[in-house]
Structures are given as C-alpha cells and as structure tokens.
Design brief:
Immunoglobulin-like, Endonuclease I-creI, 5-stranded mixed sheet, about 35% strand
Amino acid sequence: MKFQKKRGVFLCSPLFLLLLLSLTSFAITYCSSRKFPEWIENPYKNLKSGEVIAGVGVGYDKDGADNSARADIAKQIKVRIIETFEDKSVVESSQKNQKSEEFAKRKIEGKIEGILEGIIIKERFFDKENKTWYSLAIIDVGKFTREKIKKISEIEGDILSNIRRIEDYISNSDIIDTPRLIETLSKLDEKIQVMRKEISTLEVFGKSYNSIAERKFDELIYEKLSDISMDISGDTTYFSSPLTFVHFDVKVKIQQKPLAWAPIEAQIREVFGGESKIRSITDEKGKARISQKVFLPSGENQITIRISTPYIKASRSKGFKTDSGIVFIESCPDFMKNEISKCIISANLKTDQNEENSKVRIKVDFSTKDVYQGKDFNSKPVFIKEAIIKIVAVSKDGINIENQFYGKGLGQSKSDAEKNAFEQAIKNICPHAK
C-alpha cells in the first residue's frame, strides 16, 4: 500500500509534468520535420500564373517520379489542345471522311511530342517513411515559345535559301535533270514538314507563325514547275487494222527547258485487259518514244501521256481512229467463247465463223492448277483453283500479241472451284464488257 501511494504522488509531481511536456514538444517537432513541400499539393503556388505549366509526379525512384510529372503536364496539354482545336479538328476530319476522335488523337500526339522536350524537373522530394519520390516538372512557356520561334526561323531561312537555289538552277541550266530536281524537292519538302510540326506546337500556347517559306514552296510547285509543255506527234492518226503497232513521239519542256530523264507513262484502251500502260523515259533532249503492239477497239481512240512524279505532273492526250475489223475465234469451250465474243463486240469489232473474212485470229489456251484442298470449320470440303487463260491474237500481217489472265475460284467441289476461277479470269480479260 505504501508503494501505491508513492506512485500516485509521482504521477502528480512537477517532475512528471515536465517530462510529459518535453515528450509532447519532441513529437510536435518530429512531425513538423516531416512536413511535405507545398508544391506537392499546389504546384502553382509559388509560380507565376500563365507563364508556366506545372505537373507533379510520384514514384518509387527518381525516374518514375520524373516521368509521372511529365505525364501530368501532358494531360494538361491534351486538354488545352482539345479546347483550342476541337472545332478545327471536326471540320478537317469531316473533309477527309475520318472519325473526328481519331483525327483529334493524331493532332494531339503530334503536338505533344514537340512540347515535351521543353519540360524540366524543377524540384524533387523524398518521403523517407514511405520511401516515395515526388517530382515537380514545369514548362517555362515564354522561354519555350521563344526557342521554338528561333528554331522555326532558322529552318525557314534554310528552306528559302534552297528555293532560291532551285529557281536559279531552272533559270540557268540548259536542261533540267529530273531525278536531281525531284531529290532536291523531296528534301525540301521534308524540312517544310518539320517546320509545320514546330509551328503546330506554338499554337498550343496561343502563338502563331506566318511562314513565308511555305508560300514560296507552293509558288515553286504550282506556278513555276507546272509550266510544262508536252508535244505529242505520231506516225499516223489512222490505223487500218485493230491489231497494230503504235508509235508516238513525245517532247517535254519545263519553262522552255528540256525535261531530261523524266518518267513517261502512256495509257491506251485495248480489247483485252482494259487499259494498257506503256512506259518510257525522256532523253537529255526531253524526248521519248512510245512504241508498242496493241489490239485496239474500232472507232475513235485516245492515247493519254502523263508525267507523274512527285512535284512535277503533266498530262496530254491525242486522238486517233481505228478501222473496223472481223475477228475469228478458234475452237474453245462455248462458255469461254461466248464471253470473249462479248468482249470483242463491246470493242466495236465483229466476230465471224469464217477465218478467211477476218483481220485478226484469236487462239485461246487455258489450264488450271490446284491451290488448296481441305475442309472448313464445319468439316465441309473446300477447294481453291487457279485458272490461266492465254490469248494469242494474230493479224494477217503477222503481228501477234500474247496475254495471260488469271483468276482464282473457291468451291465445295473441284468443278465449282474451277468454274468460279474461269469466271474471274474472264472478268479480268474483259473489264469493260457488259
């Protein structure tokens, strides 16, 4: 009992109260020493409004926290881009027949990529108790936009210098080297795309950049490089037989200078196979010859010759006439002969059973080969066959043209697959037949 009495006296003594006060003070001091930086809860508190974009990130290491902070800024920028460009995105996407969401997503990704490089990590904090890192990332908007404008100006200056060099080359050269010119224009176009991307990042911060270089490049392409003359001359404008040689000479100039080593493509409709393409290339004088055996429809025909390269495009057409003619088809399966006859008739030619009356004789050879044999998911048989139809057209003058046409067919039997394959091959022979 004496012990209990002394214990009670001690708990009420001044010495105990002093000890309790000391412990409380220590606890308060300890807790206050773990106080988190204000920027974790409010990253903008000590930053000037409108001059920076700030983001806070958390992670188990520095890199994780830094990346999290960058991602926080990226989210804010996405919201800003959507608010700024939403209407424009919907308009442009509707013009391209694309979903506005997909179009906007590509716009956002392209702009953010150019902005993230301006992010810096301003502060870090390590929570020892939870072993967690916090990072504060910022973009100095003023500094970022100034650096972007400087970079865009440098790119634009380089582009303008290159445009002047191209203009001088066209003006001072005796001939225009097409591959060299296309290569130079392609590199210039790449620089313009880089410049456009840099300009787009400025728009996120309400800045704009009026590019003179882009307008100059358009003037170069659509004015100076579109000044193309193309003369087409031929041996004749009339062909007495539908199966014949065509010869056309082409001379191409750009701003009155020969366009050398330019790829040329001629397009002409034939009886079999639809449009036929004949390719050539100009020489050092800008001249090219289009020459090929063709099987022409009767009546009015036309050859169209194009220069189709990046940045340099031109097209000219020349008309000519082809006399009517009778075509004799050698023996082949009736279904095939009937379809080929339709093809010939749709080309304004006639067929005859008498070979002596014909200007052109048609020989048809055909074969098939197995492509696949097996079963489908319902265990039903599946066959795939390929049909090959070879057509040889021979004129009385001895001119001959050989073409091969292919078709694949699917069926539950070999005969069905073969039939479908031949039907597809015939469609390839006569794409213009009704």
